[in-house]
Structure prediction request, 902 residues.
Amino acid sequence: MRFDTPATTNPIDQLKIVGKPVDRIDGPLKTTGTAPYAYERHDVVPNQAYGYVVGSAIAKGRIASIDLSTAQRAPGFLAIVTADNAGRLGRGRFNTARLLGGPDIEHYHQAIALVVAETFEQARAAAQLVRVDYVRTDGMFDLAAAKDSWTPAAGLGAPADPGVGDFAGAFPTAPIQLDAAYTTPDHSHAMMEPHASIAAWEGDSLTVWTSNQMINWTVGDLAQTLGIAREKVRLISPFIGGGFGGKLFLRADALLAALGARAARRPVKVALPRPLMANNTTHRPATIQRIRIGATRDGKITAIGHESWSGDLPGGGPENAVQQTRLLYAGANRMTATRLAILDLPEGNAMRAPGEAPGLMALEIAMDEMAEKLGLDPIEFRVRNDTQVDPENPGRPFSQRQLIECLRTGAERFGWNKRNAQPGRLRDGRWLTGMGVAAGLRNNLLTTSAARVRLDHRGVVTVETDMTDIGTGSYTIIAQTAAEMMGVPLDKVVVRLGDSSFPVSAGSGGQWGANNSTAGVYAACVKLREAVAQKLGFNSADAVFGDGQVRSGNRTVSLAEAAGESGLVAEDAIEYGDLGKQYQQSTFVAHFVEVGVDVATGETHIRRMLAVCAAGRILNPKSARSQVIGAMTMGVGAALMEQLAVDKRRGFFVNHDLAGYEVPVHADIPHQEVIFLDETDPISSPMKAKGVGELGLCGVGAAVANAIYNATGIRVRDYPITLDKLLAGLPEA
Amino acid sequence: MSKVTLTVNGANRELELDTRTTLLDALREHLQLTGTKKGCDHGQCGACTVMVDGQRINSCLTLAVMHEGDEITTIEGLGTPGNLHPMQAAFVKHDGYQCGYCTPGQICSAVAVLNEIKAGIPSHVSADLTVAQQTTAAELRERMSGNICRCGAYSNILDAITEVAGGQT
Prediction:
């Protein structure tokens, strides 16, 4: 189905099931421990052996020699895979560094061997017996030091250094100016389920049960890396224990399980040990950002500039932290620039809301600072600089943009009028209290997504698509979509996901999954409705689907009967025209945070949080709300605690486990409120939906930072805002 | 190798295990009870929480052979998809999970936490050690803080536990 004109009224608009806060259909499996994750598939293939990964102990250099003899004599030893014996390996389209290093080493904890043994304990013990002599070479591990050796770099789909007007002329002449630098550290996805795979060969065909967000990308990259035809690779990933971008790509677990299974001649299972994950896999790169804003005295932005520096391995890409600045506020003279330095740290790549997450952490502090310089309320300053068109291309409107409504609604609900504009004035016992606000934007990305829908003789509708559910609720919203389209209750829908033998979907990333994958299911259901109507001799235009039946004129037939013994099947994809070019499609949020900062210790405690989102039709308010509160929680982590600490001499992330890399726990997070503004966006898709999973993270960090400033009068521009950065500025208790 | 007999969810299980095998791997790899999750294998995340003789522990931090004769309760022992434990049902109702990987550990911890409060065991945030402990939000958050949820379902998990706690008193 081609979608190239705005959606009109369609069966989804009935909203009998879509738009309802139904419980997740996979909830009973997840809460009873019966949802099968990758490493747990004892049921799929017998005789599984265990693989254990050996990671490089140096960041850059080469392996001079590797002695496997002791490991090979270890009890239970079955096989070992190294670059020496793995055969010729390619590199996946989405990988920067090779997934099996040696003799050259590109980063710390790059996998250099997989030891396969009968049991987990034996594999782990044998892996400790691999002796490696390295020749270490110097590398560049310090972004601040590498900053000046940058090259211009374009973000995904963006031109290098986009801008409009005359920023260089306009900024210095603006009556009110801000010129400030901000830093964000490297972040780790730290999903709860480690990267894990079970691989089994049958002749030259490979099946991998894995934990992966993007089935089709990863089938391609696994085939390309192994040098086999993609038709020979099957990936199965029905449940994924968190991804956040860390499981978008082929990683070492899947490749090494496949190589280990080939070497051991039996199925092999591999999970990355937690302490290996931060350095072996990808992370969100640190940024250094400079923001300049010029405005008239009445608070109209005349010039806005945003530059960002980040680093990556040779061949890698930048963190596109300036992306949102091209769209979020008005202003005639604009410049943005993305700079990429070569670093020899582990590979940087996408993490939830790549670009916007760190970009808004900086931009939305800058807006708070600018509002203060202008003597304006920070909400009023943002309202005055709202734009309903793409500021770089005013002929191109936003399809929907309710940012002002988000801010106004949030202000009222949060009690923003109780905020004291003078920072550091409110006290509650030992706590200095304050409120902060920030805006957020994340784009709605459109991409082809296909599904197959079956109707059987019991009237059960089965949806098959390689879409994944990484905790986002895909199972449920896809079931709601099929139920609404076919006119059946939710319990008459079966959803099967995450299998490369199913039609190729959008996958889970970039908050594009919900809208695109359900639109693909919509397209397939339209075809299935036509097939039903045709079989019954109905005119498909006036066939009505409801209550498990299809009705035309005075004829009513149950779907079960219509399907008959042989059943009916339909497959289609949603494919987009150029509505994404004609309109800027984005989602918007206003975040409100109240903090208390301990006047003696500088410890920050989050007291209240509210997010108001405008993101098209909300397909399931319950699971969508969970996406947003989860992102708010991750935003608190980024604001207050998360930081991969870089050893700048040896070139690795030091705190590479869940004890050292701190993420929010129960005690850090208060009750959270989320409001979705009533919105449908017919420009987006037949579902009129967009995404919220990344939107929820956009701006949270800055709202926390601004609340801390409001509480203490201390402006911290370097994340995370740990207590050591506040202590010197706190008043005498 | 060593023999060990455990009572798991009420059933006697005899195992012959490598002495290095953790209770977690005995459950997951040998008994194929994969509801108990391995998130870090280092006692840092709580995904492997089970109850041993009624007390919650990180099953990755203890060797299976240390539990001869012990009563182990895992998530599979609380309820099944067709017959959910009240805590499991409350997690579904309040959407107290997203990816589901930390969920069995959260639920096992939550069940144990309510028992700990009932038994009068104080926590770091208990103001008065001499009175009966209360199921306040602060107490629940403190006591649940060993169970990380990276998806960030904490606010919903708290609603789920609070509902079950209310039903118990």
Summary: Chain B touches chain A through 63 residues (CB under 8 Å). The CA atoms of residues 94 and 156 of chain B lie 6 Å apart.
